[in-house]
Amino acid sequence: MKVLIADQINQKGIEELEEVAEVVARTDITPEELVSDIKDFDAIVVRSRTKVTREVIEAAPLLKIIARAGVGVDNVDVEAATEKGVMVVNAPESTSITVAEHTMGLVLSMSRKIAIADKSVKEGKWEKSRFMGMELNGKILGIVGMGRIGSQVVVRSKAFGMDIMVYDPYITPEAAAELGVEVVDLETLLKNADVITIHVPLTPETKYLISEPQFKIMKENAIIVNCARGGIIKEADLYDALKAGEVGGAALDVYETEPPKDNPLLELDNVVLTPHIAASTSEAQRDAAIIVAKEIKKVFQGESPKNVINMPVMDPESFQLIKPFFGLAEKLGKFLIQTAKGNITELNITYCGELAEVQKNDIITRMILQEVLNPILTEPINLVNAPGVAKNRGIIVIEGKRCDSKGFKDLISIKMNADGNEVSVEGVFDKEPKIVMINGYQVDVETEGTMVIVRYKDIPGIIGSIGTKLGEHSINIAKMQVGRQAPGGEAVMVLKVDQKVSKDVEDAIKSLDQVYDAVAVNL
């Protein structure tokens, strides 16, 4: 076996690999050389410099695994790797402590005005009265997002005597009790916290999660810290809030545009800025190298690696049998997470028809879990770690087989419980993924674009009022389906629309007489 080290990694990782393979370090390899020489290697290790493109992957007949010694895999064509049966692994846990420590460093820098005090002394000044600080002891820390990093911040902030509020719609009461934190809604956290730290991924739901309305309700001396992703905080609104004294200060390691050239935040004294270095420590780089080296060793020894970004290796026959259902699993998972109301506590997944016989290694279940969990966690969820992450978050996953396929060759039926609210959905693959049942009502829904799902009383005029409300918000209806069990009872309407539907529009529909619920889903 041969491993190519295409970027600088810690020597400890190289030593791990040398136990099982011939290791070739070419950390100055050019893109052209990589394409011509990759044919001789069974594995490649990269950091961020080297791009593992489709061209590289297609030129690598022996390649079994691509290892990114870090978290992000933006420089790897994961789709091309999956098509070729090449595993892509990373080291998501390598940076948890490092980022948590950087977060605490920024909190201390802001609370004690260390950065601007340092600058003042170096300018020959002695402005003691200007730099009155704030003790962390007894203050409230508000943590937005409780994945690996958020949990590490909890541990460190407790050492400073802080009380902790957490906003994470998906944390279980048991997990919160174990950590000793109070789970609250976002508004409560923002109103009460003296220090706020962000630890969520950047998704359509978290884009500008913190903007003008949120700054308006924070304490005037509150400090906000973001070491997660640029774009979660709306920087223009942060600038206005800092200038107006609506918040006390901010510390950022990530930005909407990097580097933050010409950013007005650069002008302010009540801001500490670092150049996206929260994950940059020698220990994190060492751990990342060791983690991915061990992943490669597992593959070479015929074992299953832990941090697989794409699909695990399986025999070609099994792959061909279940491949058509991958798209359906993805769409069903996306549907479930967008319709969940509160903490997901249980997923009951049943495979029906011929699929009950061919479904191998619970890979489709893992795909569904991956789509459910990825939008709510900062660490990447993959086919290998999805069941463990679900278990750790208190989600019971029940897998069954041999239900009534209702005339279809194959069918996947899922019931989700979220804080006592049950959602059910059934899907099939018939040339393309389709949803054929929602909450017990028969539908025939394409799994693309935006849909609005409305529960209402089946009486004259309700459908028209819903359409009118969408029209008032300039939302065009492309298709409409209605499912009901009896005239005059409860019914479900699925509207395929041409525009994205905001929370305000959902609320407007729900406010209509005889409408029980409305939710928009983007697939």
From TrEMBL:
Pinpoint the ACT domain residues: 451-523
Q: Which GO terms describe its molecular function?
A: NAD binding; phosphoglycerate dehydrogenase activity
Pathway info = Amino-acid biosynthesis; L-serine biosynthesis; L-serine from 3-phospho-D-glycerate: step 1/3
| PROSITE patterns in UniProt | ACT (PS51671), D_2_HYDROXYACID_DH_1 (PS00065), D_2_HYDROXYACID_DH_2 (PS00670)
**Which InterPro entries does the entry link to?**
ACT-like_dom_sf (IPR045865), ACT_dom (IPR002912), ASB_dom_sf (IPR029009), D-2-hydroxyacid_DH (IPR050857), D-isomer_2_OHA_DH_cat_dom (IPR006139), D-isomer_DH_CS (IPR029753), D-isomer_DH_CS1 (IPR029752), D-isomer_DH_NAD-bd (IPR006140)
Q: Which GO terms describe its biological process?
A: L-serine biosynthetic process
* Keyword Amino-acid biosynthesis on entry: yes
Q: Which family does it belong to?
A: Belongs to the D-isomer specific 2-hydroxyacid dehydrogenase family.
Q: Which NCBIfam families does the entry mention?
A: PGDH
What PANTHER family does the record tag this protein with?
D-ISOMER SPECIFIC 2-HYDROXYACID DEHYDROGENASE FAMILY PROTEIN (AFU_ORTHOLOGUE AFUA_6G10090) (PTHR42789)
Recorded protein name is D-3-phosphoglycerate dehydrogenase
Q: Which organism is it from?
A: Methanobacterium formicicum (strain DSM 3637 / PP1)
